[in-house]
Amino acid sequence: MTKSDNITWQNSKVDKDQRQQLLGHKSAVLWFTGLSGSGKSTIANEVEKRLYENQITSYVLDGDNVRFGLNSNLGFSAEDRQENIRRIGEVSKLFVDAGVITLTAFISPYREDRDNVRKLLATDEFIEIFVDTPIEVCEDRDVKQLYAKARRGEIKGFTGIDAPYEAPDKPEITVDTSKQPLATSVDQIMAYLNEHDYINVETADEV
Ligand SMILES: Nc1ncnc2c1ncn2[C@@H]1O[C@H](COP(=O)(O)OS(=O)(=O)O)[C@@H](OP(=O)(O)O)[C@H]1O
Ligand SMILES: Nc1ncnc2c1ncn2[C@@H]1O[C@H](COP(=O)(O)OP(=O)(O)O)[C@@H](O)[C@H]1O
């Protein structure tokens, strides 16, 4: 649905398949979801590094960073989170069309919002990665001291404390950073990409 009248879709002369051929690998979104502090950014950035070292074009869209720019007019109400994820879904689709392996690190707490992004893309272009780290571990880490603030009532509607997190039903990949080291999660994701023919990387490197 669009608010604008009198707009026409403009076809390009170079298509996604050609861009993928040029880059030498398929494109897709690696959609990380999980609580604040679960490890989304850490893993996404390490996977990006590993892909780069293997000459694979990738890009990380990160919750905090995108909220400084594109989504600076959005807060943390359910409606704003929905719009946040909708926009990131659309941006991810553009990146995938450009041939890039796109990694997104957003809490994306609502199942319906994530499923709407899945619907925007082809079946094999959306890879949901559930960073299933228990809240006790996230809260214990409290990287940004936000859980402490939320417990003191200084932040309202904090995910996992007084705002919901809906876990995925059937994520393509699940990692629990309280049970496995960073390198194992990175290997697991690289292996998935290799096994499903997104990339063709000979051996796993050290993280
Ligand atoms: N109320 C509330 N709830 C959850 N998180 C909060 C909140 N306020 C600020 N923050 C900080 O914002 C980061 C989450 O932004 P996202 O864009 O990923 O959130 S969402 O997907 O729209 O739910 C999140 O970053 P991460 O820790 O990287 O997940 C927090 O640092
Ligand atoms: N096995 C692990 N995998 C990923 N992160 C880990 C692990 N163990 C500890 N951490 C730490 O947990 C924190 C996760 O923070 P971050 O990646 O910013 O999470 P998120 O993006 O989900 O908010 C980082 O400080 C990271 O160093």
Note down, in words, how this protein is organized.
- The chain has 207 residues and is of the alpha/beta class.
- The protein has a single domain (16-133, 165-200), classed as 3-Layer(aba) Sandwich (Rossmann fold).
- It contains 8 helices and 5 strands, in the order αβαβααβαβααβα.
- A 5-stranded parallel sheet has the order 2-3-1-4-5, with helices on both faces.
- Helix 2 packs across helix 8 and helix 4 (78-97) packs parallel to helix 5.
- It is globular.
- It starts with 15 loop residues before the first helix and ends in a 12-residue tail after the last helix.
- The model has no long low-confidence stretch (mean pLDDT 95).
- The structure holds 3'-phosphate-adenosine-5'-phosphate sulfate and adenosine-5'-diphosphate.
- GO terms for molecular function: adenylylsulfate kinase activity; ATP binding.
- Catalyzes the synthesis of activated sulfate.
- It catalyses: adenosine 5'-phosphosulfate + ATP = 3'-phosphoadenylyl sulfate + ADP + H(+).
**Bound ligand species:** 3'-phosphate-adenosine-5'-phosphate sulfate, adenosine-5'-diphosphate
Largest sheet: 5 strands, parallel
Number of helices, counting only DSSP H or I runs of 4 residues or more: 8
- Class from secondary-structure proportions: alpha/beta
Q: What is the residue-mean pLDDT, rounded to a whole number?
A: 95
Strand content: 5-15%
Total beta strands: 5
When the domains are counted, the total is: 1
- Strand arrangement within the widest β-sheet reads 2-3-1-4-5
CATH architecture: 3-Layer(aba) Sandwich
Instruction: State the end-to-end CA separation.
Output: 44 Å
**Shape descriptor:** globular
Low-confidence stretches: none
CATH hierarchy class name: Alpha Beta
CATH third-tier fold name: Rossmann fold
Cα gyration radius (Å): 18 Å
The H-level CATH homologous superfamily, spelled out, is P-loop containing nucleotide triphosphate hydrolases
Order of helices and strands: HEHEHHEHEHHEH
Q: Tell me the helix content.
A: 40-55%
